[in-house]
Amino acid sequence: MSFAQSVLAPWALIFTSLLSLGVVVWALWRRPWKALLKDTALQHRWLGATLAVVLMWQLRAQAVDWLTLHLVFTVLMTLVFKAPLALLSNVLINVAMVVIGRNEWTLLGANVLVTGIVPAAIIGTVWRLVDRRLPDNLMVFLFACGFFGAALATLGAGLAAVLLIIVAGTDPNAIYLAQEYARFLPLLMPSEAFITGMLLSILLVYHPNWVATFNDHRYIDMQ
Known about the structure:
By secondary structure, the protein is mainly alpha-helical. Helices cover 74% and strands 4% of the residues. It is built from 10 helices and 3 strands, in the order E-H-H-H-E-E-H-H-H-H-H-H-H. The protein has helices at residues 10-29, 33-38, 40-56, 74-81, 83-99, 108-133, 138-168, 172-182, 185-206, 216-221, and strands at residues 2-3, 61-64, 67-69. A 3-stranded antiparallel β-sheet has the order 1-3-2. Helix 5 (83-99) packs antiparallel against helix 6 (108-133). It starts with a strand and ends with a helix.
């Protein structure tokens, strides 16, 4: 989901832009391009995945003029490429949405926050808990990160969008619709979880070395 038209107060647009900029600077500070420069195959996978998500974002439902519903894929991108590359990919995707006229420039920071930072932070936390606390089991990783993590990240991103509207919305009707929309968030979680889990399972079966957060030696060879 993402914002298509601005119903946020100017201070919220500035705040979300600064927050998103700070996180993007952190991602760049981690120097993810070093891995890209060393691995041509990784470059192809990352650019191809970014383009694929741009195309998938075109399959959207326009619930209201200012909000669109669509699969986000940030969880999958974070698990496959880790957070820095996934966040940079999300920025490029949101910029592409602006360039083709889907979203407004002023909403770039808010959309990066909702579609990129929040779900990436949630799945990053889930992954660390799985990596450190749960048994080294392929199915545990798949279901905890791919399915449960994706559902939880979708819920978190939706709540972040609703909270932004409630706190900084300038249109009373938009605030009312956001409160109503919050009730249907649990219905949106299974679709993102199913697609993410299915694609992740395919990668783990055929190309486990492509998933940067998955240690095939721990989860497969040692079993």
